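Hi R.,

As promised, here are both runs. First protein below:
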Amino acid sequence: MRPHLACLILLVSVVAQIVANMSFADDAAAPLSNRESSAQPNAERLLTRGSGEAEGEKTRTNNSFPAEGKLDAFLGEPRLDIQTLFKDERFPNIVVARDGSVLATWGNQQVRARRSEDGGKSWGEVITVATPGFQGGGLTVDETTGDILTFVEAHHPPAPMTVYRSRDHGATWRADEGTVIHPDSHGNLPSMHMNEKGITLRNGKYKGRLIRPTRFYAGKNDRSKWPDHYTNAMFSDDGGKTWQTSEPFPENGTGEAALVELSDGRIYYNSRVHWDARPRNTRRRSAISEDGGMTWKDFAIVDILPDGHQHRSYGCMGGLTRLPVQDRDILIFSNIDTSNPVRERATVWASFDGGKTWPVKRLVFEGPSAYSALAAGRPGTPSEGWIYLHFESQGSKVARFNLAWLLAGKRTGDGELPNELVK
């Protein structure tokens, strides 16, 4: 080939690559509606709000990462490591963004975030989301667009609230304008603090719906009104612009909750008690929704799961996540597990039947610990196979571990492990 012809071919190739990169950058900065439509052909099948799923199709997120993978990714050699993330303040949340980066938020004076792009091995610098600001929990990844929403209250609730949105997997944030939240059927507006993360529903009629746990503070949090508190949820079918509030959880005196979607589309809801009198006992509460989070049924006391230490007048925020494993409902729960009248001993439990039984638990951290939040890694990304626990411990710590590590823990006597996981 002649030298000048080879140079010409090389130049054309370089220009084509530059144009392709410019198109990608323009797409990332485009308005939400443009990004949704332009991204659709690049994924095998993006999650779309309210759309059905054809027989045999598997939902995928952006970059063609599958939404769910195989159980084997969470097994193998047992693994656990722990590192400090924030050194002051309170209130953890954690999610895995649609590109696989891990995002932890934190703070009761200002809301801050840190990100990991290597599956939690290392973490970037602190990102300020809002200052001043009070962490409202409910950090939510919109699986349709990739946006991440965080909810910031002005002070301890009930308080004015602002939704902050990230369109770059948590790297930068801006306040949403004009968010509308409708009250529940009793005329009560929900408060955000301090609940587990939100989720995007993946199955059935309400596919694409955003939903996060919330609560109602009666009497501006006057202790005499605690029996009138209740947990609930709020949900959005338009990407977080407008929100509806669910019916109350079946028991009053509850506050600070967590939820996951099961593989059949039902929502499993698990709540703390927030009442001095501690009705009935000091264990967690649960319920199920079969209508996309609008109402709750099948109330139960989860006798095997502690709600904070057992000497305090009310419970402790716990974490909850479902492992993204096809056709399985493996749930991980976190709380403290101690016989002492102090908040200590961060512990995790596993359920293999969607929260009906919790046959195994394992201590993560022996020392001081309190509120906690959980997330699971995404298939096809550096986070795959990891479970993340963000918990209060003289600031905050993040533990990452796999299911193999948890399975080596203590049997609780509540149900049995699946045969294929018994060694």
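And here is the second one, sequence first, then its structure tokens:
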Amino acid sequence: MIITRTPYRLSFFGGGTDYNPWFEENRGLILAVGLAHYCYITARYLPPFFSDHTSRIVYSKIESVLDHNDIVHPSVRGCLKFLKIKDGVEIHHDGDLPARSGIGSSSSFTVGILHALHALQKQMVSPEQLATEAIEVEQHLLKESVGVQDQIMAAYGGFRLIELGPGNHWHVKNILLPKEYLQALEDHVLLGFSGISRIAEVQAKKKVDNILQNKTTEELQAIFSLAQAAFEAFRQQTNFDVIGNLLDKSWQLKRRLADGISADWMENLYDTALRNGAFGGKLMGAGGGGFFFFLAPPYKHEKIKNSLPQIKVWVPFKIDQSGSQVIFYNGS
């Protein structure tokens, strides 16, 4: 039996520049952290004692199948196909945070599945290989309109700068900051769930279509420049009000990448947070709902929370430093 633990992610800057049609021609830049909230995958080979199924997949549903091609869950089906696994398996998923909420949960799931299946085959894999394979599964096998930051952050964790392009290339750098500054950053972050889940594919496809039609070139160039400025600000351990101001500028641009990313209720929520002391923030992920993230002085947190009854749950923020890990291995 194998158990993997794979972090979700919080993207600070550069979202939208990680879509291949953009960065292969123009370059992209992402600043993101792995969240110390996780997707857990348990996997084992299933003994051949069952006449009605050879594999069993347990997530929000339970699937029992005789043929892997009959698995409904696209990521599970795709990963088994990608790794050419024919033997019967049992796979269970558990997650700390809700799916379809802007924290990269789909890619954390894919990376966690791949990691577990490699471990079942007694194969050690690097974060680079895990990220590359997850991108291959999601973009090419499953034909999903996704970028590449989620898979990379799920595999690597930590506080990372991801340099993208030109061409289909990417490079990950660790952002090294003093422990005290990272602790202060964690203390300034507010992460709240709106209670609304959405399918990221819908918004992502709109973004890609707009990129291909050159409708958002100006916005993405500005988002790239803000990511560069934010990287320098972090490197210089700049005050968080400055970084919050960059976040606010980036969010105003992100809203324009596709119709439906934001809505009146989201704008009201965001504006209320700023009026009550937040330096800046954003709606996480592709847009349309999910998690909100704000940067605000700790002494303002309670006031901001009280002003936002729409937020159903406030989630503690801490940076994961390990990336995807095998936390239990019994390969006998």
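A quick note on the second one: Residues 217-235 form the longest helix (19 residues). Let me know what you think.

Best,
J.
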